[in-house]
Amino acid sequence: MAILTDTTEEERRSRTDAVLDVQDLQVRFPTDDGVVNAVRGISFSLRPGDVLGIVGESGSGKSVTSMAVMGLLPRSAKITGSVKFRGRELLGLNDAQMSRVRGKSIAMVFQDPMTSLDPVYKVGVQIAETVARAVDLLKLVGIPNAADRVANYPHEFSGGMRQRVVIAIAIANQPEVIIADEPTTALDVTVQAQVLEVLKTAQDETGAATILITHDLGVVAGMVDRLLVMYAGRAVEKGTVDDVFYRPRMPYTIGLLGSMPRVDAREQRLTPIKGAPPSLINPPPGCPFGPRCPLHYARCDEAEPDLVPVDVDNHSAACIRVDEPVATDVAPEDIFTDDSSDATLAAASALGARAEADAGDPLADALAGSAHSAEPNREQDARRDEEERA
Ligand SMILES: Nc1ncnc2c1ncn2[C@@H]1O[C@H](COP(=O)(O)OP(=O)(O)OP(=O)(O)O)[C@@H](O)[C@H]1O
Ligand code: SF4
Ligand SMILES: [Mg+2]
């Protein structure tokens, strides 16, 4: 499989002072059904204090990416590329070497706090070597009566409080990188924001570069500087939070935003992305989002689009129609309409039926019925149709 690069020029320049530098990371799992291409060329660089959000649907490869960085994947996994911590290559280190890196230099916060805590030990013992330090850390993460609570067992805490304890353990050794994988997903909605706040405090306190992994774009908005949107094992859009939230270029990102409730929108119609991500075993050629994309047309099936710079050097997206969402100021509800998605999905049920779906252009159709000007689009599409016929 071709290695697809997703590193912009600006990122290449900033790699020199990176604390964590991941380049062209690929992870494959041989299985009885074939090779699962779980991560296909992910790259990112973090400098001290940077906060990166990795978002994407279930199965997009977020956890496999973080487990590869932490050296926690099963031996059967085939990992290529490079993961450097302060310039030292981590891929290929043995278990003893990796366990020195884990916890000390790179700490991880998992979704379920119970998996990180040992039920038979008091939390104080699990946090730090001295009681005084454990109490300080419990105070830092906002646990009331910390001096008494160090003597409690994990089951004596609520889910939200347990996750605070896990964050206290994660920062106990002043790590330089914290990876939080869905840290709030298992928690009650009411405590999710509090735990994110604690994570932010922990990050401020340690100055650690942080990766926040989530399937929920709403979680990352107030917390991260940069976003990496994953789909089918690849980065399909990268940029600052403002780039991705206000100037999204990849239809998948537009779809994610359209399916997310926003507090700033008075009247918002949620438009879910229909269908499911493709199989990661022998995926068909072309754009992996094609079967679910309302903007799909024949050329999308020719080759998988590479991540290309858009707007500014640090914003990139993987879509051959990358300029059109901005040129037409299109909103999620304009393109992810019920009708257009159904038509595209129905057509995608058999690759051979694609030609029918391409007879109309959902973007142009959507825009024709909206307040936006559709003229530039129609002209472009007519040109493309002619090219395709030639
Ligand atoms: N040990 C394994 N063997 C085979 N396939 C695996 C293995 N671990 C993960 N995968 C596959 O790799 C893909 C990516 O999985 P991953 O856990 O990274 O997804 P994710 O983005 O973290 O999803 P979620 O939001 O559900 O946590 C999935 O298709 C998964 O089934
Ligand atoms: S390349 Fe085509 S199918 Fe893929 S996201 Fe862009 S318009 Fe949609
Ligand atoms: Mg996961």
Summarize the structure.
This protein is an alpha/beta fold.
Commentary on this structure:
With 390 residues, the protein is of the alpha/beta class. The protein has helices spanning 9-14, 62-70, 95-101, 113-116, 123-127, 131-140, 146-149, 159-171, 189-206, 217-220, 241-246, 251-258, 324-327, 332-335, 338-348, 354-358, 362-368, 375-389, and strands at residues 20-31, 34-46, 51-55, 78-85, 88-89, 106-109, 177-181, 209-214, 226-231, 234-240, 308-310, 315-317. It is 36% helix and 19% strand. It has an eight-stranded mixed beta sheet, with helices on both faces. A four-stranded antiparallel beta sheet has the order 2-1-4-5. β1 and β2 (34-46) form a beta hairpin. The radius of gyration is 23 Å and the shape is globular. The model is unreliable at 1-5 and 341-385 (pLDDT under 50). Residues 250-251, 287, 289-290, 293, 295-296, 300, 305, 319-321 line the site of iron/sulfur cluster.
* Record field, number of beta strands: 12
| Strand line-up of the largest beta sheet | 6-7-8-3-9-10-12-11
The profile of the biggest β sheet is: 8 strands, mixed
Q: CATH superfamily membership of the largest domain, which one? A: P-loop containing nucleotide triphosphate hydrolases
SSE arrangement, N to C: HEEEHEEHEHHHHHEHEHEEHHEEHHHHHH
Q: What coarse outline follows from CA principal-axis ratios? A: globular
Structural class: alpha/beta
